[in-house]
Amino acid sequence: MTSQAPLLIDVLKEYIEQKNWDEAILLLSRLRAADEADLFSELSNSEKRELLPHLSYEELARILENMKKDDISNISEQVNGNTLSQAVDRISPDQAADILHRLPATRSAEVLARMTEKKAVQPLLGYADDSAGGLMTPELVALTRGMTVDEAISRLRKAKPPRETIDVLYVADKHKKLVGKVTLRQLILAEPTMKIGDIMEHDPVSISAGTEREECVRLMEHYGLTALPVVDEQQRLVGLIRLQEVAQVAEEEATEDMYQMVGLSGHERVFAPMRDSIRRRLPWLCINLGTAILAGFVVNLFESTIARVVTLAAFIPIIAGQGANAGAQTLTIVVRSLALGELSFKNARKAVLREVALATINGLAVALLAGAVVYLWKGDVWLGVVLGVAMFLTMMVAGLSGALVPLILKLFRIDPALASTVVVTTVTDVCGFVFLLGVATLLITYLA
Amino acid sequence: MTSQAPLLIDVLKEYIEQKNWDEAILLLSRLRAADEADLFSELSNSEKRELLPHLSYEELARILENMKKDDISNISEQVNGNTLSQAVDRISPDQAADILHRLPATRSAEVLARMTEKKAVQPLLGYADDSAGGLMTPELVALTRGMTVDEAISRLRKAKPPRETIDVLYVADKHKKLVGKVTLRQLILAEPTMKIGDIMEHDPVSISAGTEREECVRLMEHYGLTALPVVDEQQRLVGLIRLQEVAQVAEEEATEDMYQMVGLSGHERVFAPMRDSIRRRLPWLCINLGTAILAGFVVNLFESTIARVVTLAAFIPIIAGQGANAGAQTLTIVVRSLALGELSFKNARKAVLREVALATINGLAVALLAGAVVYLWKGDVWLGVVLGVAMFLTMMVAGLSGALVPLILKLFRIDPALASTVVVTTVTDVCGFVFLLGVATLLITYLA
Predict the structure, then answer these.
(1) How many CB pairs under 8 A join A and B?
(2) What is the per-residue DSSP string for B98-134?
(3) Closest of A104, A101, A106, A59 to residue A83, by C-alpha
(4) B324 vs A34: CB contact, 8 Å cut-off?
(5) A5, A156, A275, A339: least CB-packed within 10 angstroms?
């Protein structure tokens, strides 16, 4: 399929150019939904605008449902409000809410007002996109303890749930409180006369609607769940989250962390429009320039020392390079462990002490090596001492700041990944140069 | 649950100290399986060794099945071969194969030889741990087109599949070739007399057993699948992969990429034993020291220029810091896009050109800014010109190497993330210093 894709898009583009709408739509409809949405996304804006009026509401719904969420606001600009609400009406409520979240507020209100499924979707709009409530679908069939297996199956047949939301069924008491779960497999395998209360698993893992989406994923992964019931403050069942809806969340979060660490927006894409990329990267590059100039300013303070021992200039990139790498190692592992839930404030002290201990040992090893290399290279013991001492201290600062910066950011409820590389590099650079040139200044009589 | 965990472990440790095995086991058995395995993992090796003989095979199996894979070889050392094979016999074949993969070869052979379920597990051992075959379970109930819905349900009841492997059922023809799929939900909702061939979805997405695990995840995420059928070279159904088994794969791959970029092993953990962490980090720190010294060597080549214009030393960290950040931005986005499948050799040329264009624009902006700052700081136009020109060229090299390094690594079938930050930083440092000090040397008469 993938290797044919470049051909398919050319065929589709040609149909559109020829205004052969029937063939264009036939081609799209023959693809699997996810591939259809991808192919549609590859069209230019003007091609989309031309093709859209010829799609049925069902076809548009299928494309919207399967399209990358970033492309949705783009499409929504190409169709009128009525068409959009007709299409969104045909999409599962959780996805519909997702789509409405992506539209400008006035557009979203207009589309919602025209929808027949308004009542199912509206409550979901109250939840943040990145909360359990924003991920859940309210489409569920709740069972009761007193039902027999046979009655439960009849209830399912009557409800005819439109989507795969019944692989796991939840059991609620008369106050709608969640009390148990039964899988569809258990229902099929059980005797028809058995009571649900007797076959259900009690006290299933659940999550409250306001919880962050990372926590949903972590919980589902930890317990190996395919569905997670969502409850309100009164423990009443309000929806469920399906694993296939959140499987990508962990990946997206990891990507966001990687991007934020180097000062990229989480929304950056390798083929995003140039203007967007410049807008996203240039500000960070300018901030970084500021911190780099700060480091340069520190070096400049020691101009007279460097003037006397010019060789010190060659040590500047050695200190900077090594501090940056050691800091990046610690930083990356701390940011990632925070994201994966392996590290929290509870065990933060232990982690920081461990990183400092590691920095001490690795720092000693690297410092000795660096000092020895310089001695062999320059034949001057004191130059080796200066680099070695500065290297050791720099690696300690790198370990300490690499561990502390993300923890401090988290303490202030800022994403621990946010530009943390820039901060840690600045701290190690500035401290490193003070160590290098400060020690050299102290030992200047032995060096010059 | 989580907030109680530190208490629970203390209680468990106390039971073990008191040799109160009944209470210890009761405590473990009351927890959800994943929490039980976590709690057990928190015990010290000697505590594990003491408790293990008192666990039933079922309890040991439950712990092994839910434990982090890294901890398994540790446990396997604490129990004898017979106990281990009895426990592994009680685990689903795909998980059992996973566990056997983690054991030393002789131990694995010994355990396998004693197992009753040997026949189910052995074929799985032929597949690499990180392939579709290594992820799949062979436990499946295949249907045929000619069956009625009622017959299919009876077949399921007779097979009594022990685990959730029947939420999606696959249909095979008489040559065992995969021809369709039916969800359990469709079976329950359909008329009992309907034929499977009439309700099944034709031509379901499948994957061949040798495919890499990243590809399995990508496919399941792309098509929103909860189960993926695995076929052999003859398109015969040999197993299925469940989404809950692979949901963590994408996250693990992302973590590995982040770690490898800064020269950390993918197995590094924030609370790994110190010795392991030193063994994993120190070699990269030494390699990095080598590249940093290389950069220092380049600076040293221009010693006479720096001696005449000492201010140039202050520009070294500015060039290094800015080149590193610009390079890291491009590198991160290229590595991540390769991992997510958004970027491949097919569209690599476009991506490289785009990054170079971005580097040109951002480079010009940053160069002008840097030059202006230096002019205001030092009151010398020529110093501004030197830094500006060097900055622009460095940012171009950063963009180019950030895009090319991971692509070249991939071309040689090396993980594109592997130590790519170290390589890109070295390239930008070395080139950046040559630009800075080279331009300064050319313009020396205007500077000194």
Answers:
(1) 351
(2) HHHHHS-HHHHHHHHHH-STHHHHHHHHTS-TTBHHH
(3) A59
(4) no
(5) A275
Measured CA to CA, the distance from residue B98 to residue B89 in angstroms comes to 13
Q: What is the pLDDT of residue A377?
A: 93
Walk me through the domains of chain A, giving residue ranges and CATH numbers.
Answer: 2-126 (1.25.60.10), 142-246 (3.10.580.10), 274-447 (1.10.357.20)
Which of B50-64, B164-178, B383-397, B404-418 is the most confident on average? B383-397
Separation of alpha carbons B241 and B123, rounded Å = 15
- Eight-class DSSP state of B52: G
DSSP B275-329: HHHHHHHHHHHHHHHHHHHHHHHHHHHTHHHHHH-TTHHHHHHHHHHHHHHHHHH
Q: How far is A160 from chain B (nearest CA, A)?
A: 7
Alpha-carbon dihedral angle through residues B442, B445, B446, B448, given to the nearest 10 degrees: 110
Contacts of A225 in chain B (CB under 8 A): 244
Say which amino acid occupies A242: R
Specify the pLDDT at position A5: 47
- pLDDT score, position A163: 64
Both tokens assigned to A354? 């461990």
CA distance B106 to chain A (A): 31
Cβ atoms B437, B430 nearer than 8 A:
no
pLDDT given for residue B6 in this prediction: 53
- Collect all residues of chain A within an 8 Å Cβ-Cβ radius of residue B340: 251, 255
To the nearest 10 degrees (0 to 180), the angle between helices A312-340 and A348-378 is 160
Residue identified by tokens 């317990």 is: A223
Residues 6 or more apart in contact with residue B408 via CB below 8 angstroms: none
- Starting from the edge strand earliest in sequence, which strands make up the sheet with A227-231, in order? A207-208, A227-231, A237-242
Measured in angstroms, the CA of A21 and the nearest CA of chain B are apart by: 26
pLDDT value, residue B162: 62
Cβ of residue A306 closer than 8 Å to a chain B Cβ:
yes
What residues in chain A have per-residue pLDDT under 50? Answer: 1-5
CA distance A22 to chain B (A): 24
Phi, psi of A126 (to 5 degrees): -70, -15
Q: Is B288 on the interface with A (CB under 8 A)?
A: yes
- A 49-78: CB under 8 A from B: 66
Contacts of B297 in chain A (CB under 8 A): 314
Using the beta-carbon criterion (under 8 Å), do B220 and A433 form an inter-chain contact? no
Tokens at B132, concatenated: 């579709």
Could you tell me where the beta strands, DSSP code E, fall in A223-352?
227-231, 237-242
Q: Which residue has the tokens 């695990």?
A: B213
ipTM (interface predicted TM): 0.78
Contacts with A, B 370-389, CB within 8 Å: 370, 373
pLDDT in tens, B123-156: 888 888 778 988 888 888 889 999 999 999 888 8
Q: Strand A227-231 to strand A201-202: parallel, antiparallel, or no bridges (unpaired)?
A: unpaired
Do residue A336 and residue B422 have CB atoms under 8 angstroms apart? no
Distance in angstroms (rounded) separating the CA atoms of residues B420 and A406: 23
Beta-carbon contacts of B361 under 8 Å, excluding residues fewer than 6 positions away, are A274, A278
pLDDT tens-digit series, residues B279-321 = 889 998 999 999 999 999 999 999 999 999 999 999 999 999 9
Query: Choosing among A39, A309, A333, A361, which should be mutated to test the B contact, i.e. which has the most B CBs within 10 A?
Result: A333
Helix (H), strand (E) at residue A150: helix A149-159
For A66-110, the DSSP string reads HS-GGGHHHHHTTS-HHHHHHHHTTS-HHHHHHHHHHS-HHHHHH
**C-beta separation of B297 from B437 below 8 A:** no
